[in-house]
């Protein structure tokens, strides 16, 4: 009987220890298997581009993408800085052209008009470094855009002024209307060679023989032809811009009133008509009705032949 109880106790104890060990081995095996399966899952997910949406690859991609974007933003900022410098050089060149077109220069404050003011910072809900880059980039782009618009407007004004000046210059008496000798100081007060008293001489006298060709000194419209007091046979050309030229003591007139003429176009032949002491051309230039010294309007090295086909 004693042995029988001992046997039952040992059998029950042995059964208990074996069950507990079996459960431990199952748990350990399951844990190992789970780790292996999890590692396999991560490996498969990584290999196939995050097919399970775990986000590891996506996070790495975003980090790399942000790094690339920051580098590109810095590069664009540098490029815009270079463009601004080129715009400044363009503005300096534009000022040179403005002077040639008889326009006032744009000073630096005007060139930078609208580029100052309140520096409004925008929160792009990004990192501090990226937010700073974006704000600087936006400010630089705005300034460059404003300077570009100003330069476009300036160059358009230069083009308009150039076209207007081109027309105005074509109407400016700028050539000697006839070959021959003249005294550049013949304009003003002088002793009249016939009347023998001092009075103002409103033009210059170009001396040459009768019949010498007389040319229009600038583009304009024939305003008068015929006899005109002491001038004898005369022609007047209205050049516009309040300028008129007069050609006196002619022997023959070759144009008619209202006719349009170009600079260098033949309009008459010289003579000795009117109050004249010898064959010559009396030539006047008037601005707003006031006589000017025509010698000031004669460009050296330019003649009527330069404007004839």
Explain this structure to me?
With 309 residues, the protein is an alpha+beta fold. It has 2 domains: 56-170; 181-307, Glucose Permease (Domain IIA), CATH 2.70.70. The protein contains 4 helices and 12 strands, in the order ααααββββββββββββ. The strands form 2 sheets. Strands 1, 4, 5, 6, 7, 8, 9, 10, 11 and 12 form a 10-stranded antiparallel β-sheet that branches. It has a two-stranded antiparallel sheet with strand order 2-3. A hairpin with a 6-residue loop joins strand 2 and strand 3 (198-201). Helix 2 (56-100) runs parallel beside helix 4. The protein is rod-shaped and about 150 Å long. The termini are far apart.
